[in-house]
Amino acid sequence: MATFTIKDNRTGRSAEFEVLDSTLGSPVVDITGLHKELGVYTYDNGLGMTATCQSEITFIDGAKGELLYRGYPIEELAEKKNYIEVCYLILHGELPNSDQYESFEKDIRIKSYPHEGIKNLFSAFPDNGHPMAILSSAVSALSAFHHQHLNIKDDEEFMEMARRIIAKMPTLAAYTYRHSMGYPLIYPDMDRYFTENFLYMLRAFPTGKTEISEVETRALDTIFMLHADHEQNASTTTVRAVGSTGAHPYAAVVAGINALWGRAHGGANESVIAQLEMIGSVENVDRFIKRAKDPNDPFRLMGFGHRVYKNFDPRARVLKRLRDELRDTIGINSKLIEIADRVEEIALNDEYFVKRNLYPNIDFYSGTILEALGIRKKMFTPIFVIGRTVGWITHLIEQKRDPKQKIYRPRQRYIGKKRRSVP
Ligand code: CMC
User: Which atom of ligand 1 is nearest to the CA of 235?
Assistant: First the structure.
């Protein structure tokens, strides 16, 4: 057994802890008995050095800029597979054969219809409410419409729930958008593939033909796929924390949606476009870069930096290529892309960003692609939600299967008042 010794220099006491190997990446030190042995806890602000669970789903090598779903590199999946095949892979651990794909994909189409009653919910929200606020409420409400499915007993019921929530998320997201635009809520079109159907639900009117090109479907499908899972990120950790209490999966997913909304996480895709709009022109880029480098200015360059990737985000690399292809096929070329290109050029050559390993992340490119597809920026984070739903649920299933899983209950370093008497 490989061990790791921790010595307390104050007392001279030391203790040995088991080192657990990982299939890929760094091994971990099992410090479960640390407090019992040495009377201390670890202090890990932001949990950057802590493995909170064991997982088989996704692997990231931040130094290499590598991302694997169930062992497959994201670049190969993006080239050869569609989002629904990747959902199956993430959920089941292996890519589907043609029969498995057919029945999985069909079930997702069937389940895309939400209960008719859920539509009433949307009319209660103001038109200008943020889609993330409405979406999280709608998913929470979904649990009331499926209360008979909340007490999940086995894997089969869990998979059924997974397909249900993956299938309904685009419909609910489209409803939030349509409500905010004052458009009538429409039904999903069962003849369309998942991603095409979502674009249809954003664009369609009760009469008239809705044009959706294959290039557009493929572009959005790639975006969904690149967002499908990302190991123990903030929203997934939130989902697992809620799941660890025994709360039902809808409650856990809603918590994930709300965690994702933050600007440092999924909300960054909306903020990137807002920031490019604020920069306004290529001539202003230098001024904003200067602000981003000023330690006394809270301004940060949105779409740059990552807790784990200290090299190019591999998802960003795929999206950069996709954006360049779209320039040729659907002719996207906006002022915002010009500004984005200039920001990237300066930042990648600036000592401040180079020294801190700050590279463009997925959100830096996804916004400009979504904009080119005619999608409004307030829908960018809900699109991240659609893609990430499969990851959240798979983590819940993995957690449920783990006989050693415990309620999340971290400790703290208390720095408040000592005990005192009430005067
Ligand atoms: N612009 C300017 N400076 C930055 C940025 C940025 N975007 N990101 C980090 N830094 C600086 C930071 O000020 C610090 O400098 P110093 O060492 O002088 O104090 C250093 O880089 C390290 O930053 P950190 O905040 O300790 O890094 P972190 O790992 O805690 O934060 C992050 C990661 C993604 C929250 C952060 O880079 C950030 O806020 N980026 C902008 C928001 C963004 O694009 N988020 C999307 C992340 S990818 C999608 C997802 O997975 O959710």
Answer: 52
